[in-house]
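=== Structure Prediction Worksheet ===
Name of assembly: unnamed complex
Input type: mixed (protein and possibly other molecules)
Chain count: two
Listed entries:
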Amino acid sequence: MSTGDQLTQFIVSGLTTGSIYALIALGFCIIHNAIGIVNFTQVDFVTLGGMMMYTFFQSLNFPMPLAFVLGVLTVTAIGALVERFAIRPAKSRAVIVLIFITIGVSILMRGAFKIIWGTNQMALPSFSGDTPFLILRAAVLPQSLWIFVITVIVVILLHFFFSSTRVGKAMRATSFNPKAAALMGVNVNRMILFSFALSGALGAVAGIIIVPITTLSYDIGVILGLKGFAAAVLGGYGNIIGAIIGGLSLGLLESFGAGMISSTYKDVIAFAILLLVLFMKPSGLLGYGEKERV
Amino acid sequence: MAAGLSKTKRLLSLIIPALVIVIIPFLIPNPYYLNVINIIGLNTIVVVGLSLLIGYAGQISLGHAAFYGLGAYLSGILTVTYSFSPWFAMIVALLATGLLALAIGIPTLKLHGHYLVMATLGFNLIINIILIQWDKMTGGPSGFPGIPSLTIGSWSFDSDKRMYYLIWFFAFASIILALNLVSSRVGRGLRALHGSEAAAASVGVRTESYKVKVFVLSAIFASVAGSLYAHYLTFISPKTFDIFFSVELVTMVIVGGMGSIWGALSGTVFLTPLPHVLHFFDEYKDVFYGLILVLILIFIPEGLVVAIQSRWLSKRRSETEEIPVDAAKLSVRPVHDYPTHGCEKRRAVPGSGNQAILRVENVSIRFGGLMALGQVSFEMPEGSITALIGPNGAGKTTLINVISGASQPQLGKVFFRDREISGRQPYHMAAMGLNRTFQNLQIFENMTVLENVMVGLHAKTRNEFVSSLFRLPGFSREEREIEQKAWEVLKFFHLEEKGLWPASSLSYGEQKRIEMARALASAPTILLLDEPVAGLNMTETREMAGTISEIRSQGVSVLLIEHDMNLVMGISDKVVVLNYGRKIAEGYPEDIQRDEKVLAAYLGGVA
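=== Predicted Assembly ===
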């Protein structure tokens, strides 16, 4: 294989995982924009997406598209439940307390996954077979293409949702200024609930489309989710475009780091570069910064 | 408040826990329980250090398991592979971890919020992967065995009980050091920067350096605990030091109560054995662990110990409130009339250069396309009240930010007497005797009224980390002086009755006075007041006018930004008018009131 082919291969695999990171990063951003916290249950939304797909498709033998939709809907509902029963009743609105509530819920959810699905590794088939085809002389798995296409569709839908729907605009208003939004008649609590639901949906999509090219277990979302968090930070936390760029860059960084330097240290390379970027641009590539105003 | 406790009470509050520590092994001979208690002790050391960083300085780290791991691995590798003596290895590990924390901390602690969380998390991930992958040095994923026990002479710490005393000696020492630090000038500085970095810097706290120092200190605590862990268990593996343990450590700080050392201890004592207790529930143990965590954070977010303490304290306060207070002391301070210019000897002639204490020369700042300040120059005569007025958006606050070091001018210079000061940090300005208040009130809500003012003395006092941690000679004298001076300042502002109240519980008008008291505490040469009467009622405004005049008569030069024209014209010696970032007039108040450009700027119309 020539170097040129290798480069194409790295790009393809980088964009594949990068898309997943971007979807997860979007989930982190949407909740951040709603209430300013890092929601660590995002990690488990990813796992749960894969698990529900397994249950609907593998155990209950539903047709794949139906299983896909049901899986996303279930996690969307779980996202809303997390907000309703763990975030909303919290007596404190302090960011750090809310963040650690999500960590507590995350531990709880992983515990529940272990009980329901066990700790064994499971597998799901690809959406349309495993015969690679060639693009620019690089072997591409059909699932990679699915991942890429679905991510693009999700991003377009999100863009439409935030720019053209009433609820989407209300959510944006809430993210800019919750008090002003409330005064204009926006039900801020409901917008926060929707944010959790939407993040659940995004996490679920990420989980469902990635599982065929990895394996599925109760903690599959943890490392993916952390990378998604890193991607969101890299892009500029809370910035939607930043999340996408951050996700794709992190994916590419990893795949080039693994291919050209060392695959055992690929995470070290990715995170070290992430740190360097932050040291030079403390609010990420497209971030607005969190400077105190006096 | 520690300063309020008598010495014997303070001693007693330490002797009792010490006695409990000594007795415990006799009550619990079961080695399994003793082992859990030893782990609690090790965690305590880490969590107490982390509490200083998170609870006091407000900087969240999800990377401290890495420092714990570095301490453990360095001790292990140095003793086994390089045959160092364990104690010496422990010191080398401590120094190396401290140095690494310094190198990491300097760039990392410039980050805020979620960025800081990610950076520390990333650091932990990197260290953990290195521990796993560098198997020639670390033994890889299967761990590092055969670490010798610690010894003193021929006495070896090779049993749970012996190790118990050593671990808890260190845990107890870490608690005492932390308690020393938090009730000191440094501790107040840390809490101040947690409350508001800008305000902390404005009274002389070197915020960046303090953040890095407390980060290094907490890393050293973690390293010592790690070394003890390695010599206690004699076997270490990378899994112990992963990000999940970092998360667990921070959870202990929060569940126990942020901003309380005893909270850190109770969080550790509660959470460390919880998984062992929940083992009983078998496969449901994670679910219960998560559930307990969530419930505590939802319903007792202030933390276990703080919840108990505040319940106890509020009971005590309601008791003291029944004590009749001297009515004369409670009455409002004598209402000052506006000093009129007829009675005041004019000290300064506007525009005369020779007695200028502050000189602004051609200062310009652009924010993108907006010119916030364009070639602004003026002089502030020594001992005067110089008012800076102008419509909203004229650039007044930007100018004060430039003078106080909060923003840097892109062009132009600022001179304090004949020394150029532009471009210096706010804490330098505070040390030189230039203090300020803020337009949007910046008091430290997490501190008492007295402590707010004590922080105000930061620039003029010197106890630092080492002397505070170890209570070196001279420490207590300076602390006493700070407290005494702060009470005097509170008296001047008629706030002494509420000195021990949380600053957040006072009214807006009182909080404005706290902020001014804080700025005045270190007896500055120049005081910059950014809208001191905004939001105050007429009585409060009149009092404030009296206070500002009184401050001037004590020799402090005041630069006053204000929209209340009665106040400005009543007490100022000189007025400078800005509009759209440019100076449009400068002169005596009575001349400014007649100036056509000024009238046009305020009322519209043709200039």
